[in-house]
Amino acid sequence: MTQNEIYVSNDGSHSIISGRFGESYHSRHGALQESLHVFIEHGLLHLKEEKSSISLLEFGFGSGLNSMLTWKVADTDSLLHVGYTGLEMYPISKDMVSRLNYPELLQMSDQFAKIHEVKWNIRHELGPSFHFTKILMDFSAPAIKEEFDLIYYDPFAPSCQPEMWQTPQLAKVRGLMCDGAILVTYCAKGSFKRALKELGFEVEELPGPPGKREMIRAKKIR
Q: pLDDT by residue (tens digit) across 25-58?
């Protein structure tokens, strides 16, 4: 297995090539643009029109970019409270964390350091409106006894982790969702959409971030 490597995506933000999977953590067209479009705009900001308190589960804490953007939203909206839980099986190294340019781009250096420094598997109150937990756990066996309002579904692509996009795994994800909860992801593969519909999701095909035609937002309706 080769080591992870940092590269600059097309919007100037860093991403990582996984040495284990040989796949990028984010879109090469723009890591920051993708996260903002898929997970923040069509996930968090969409749901906060209905709910002021949101419990959120991310499959793929990864570089911490999505959690940082989520914290930024919670910090700027006094009426919103977010409880964030991120799952990760292969944490990146401290050296790699120190070289990512997200703190400068988001002007959140202290916060970025904090989310990577705090202990795993413990809930942390990082602010009055942002509670944070990162869990070292295998995605395929999420041993969590909680239901969530919002899922950031961000494993590697189906070509690298096909099992994460198939019915057995998606049924486990569904079991972690409240009635009416939503799942957002960058993937819009046909077999993935069909699996979601078979499991009782209402599937929306939305315009994708730069470089992708579509993304998916799915709502648990039964």
A: 999 999 999 999 999 999 999 999 999 999 999 9
Asked if pLDDT for residue 190 goes beyond 90, the answer is yes
**How many Å apart are CA 120 and CA 167, to the nearest integer?**
29
Q: What region, left, alpha or beta, does residue 170 occupy, with left being phi > 0 and alpha being psi -120 to 50 degrees?
A: alpha
The rounded distance, in Å, linking the Cα atoms of 7 and 27 is 11
Rounded Cα distance between 25 and 2, Å, is: 15
Which CA distances in Å does 209 have to 13, 135, 187, 216?
A: 15, 28, 11, 11
Tokens of 109: 């250096």
Query: Does the pLDDT of residue 207 top 80, yes or no?
Result: yes
Residues 6 or more apart from 90 whose CB is under 8 A from it?
18, 20
Torsion of CA 137, 14, 105, 155, to 10 degrees: -30
Q: Say if residues 19 and 4 touch (Cβ distance below 8 Å).
A: yes
Residue 30 region by backbone torsions, left for phi larger than 0, else alpha for psi between -120 and 50, else beta: left
Reduced to 3 states (helix: H, G, I; strand: E, B; else coil), residue 10 is coil
Question: What residues does 116 pair with on adjacent strands?
Answer: none
Contacts of 49 (CB under 8 A, 6+ apart): none
Cα–Cα distances in angstroms (integers) from residue 162 to residues 137, 158, 159, 205, in the given order = 18, 4, 6, 20
Pairing of strands 177-185, 201-207: unpaired
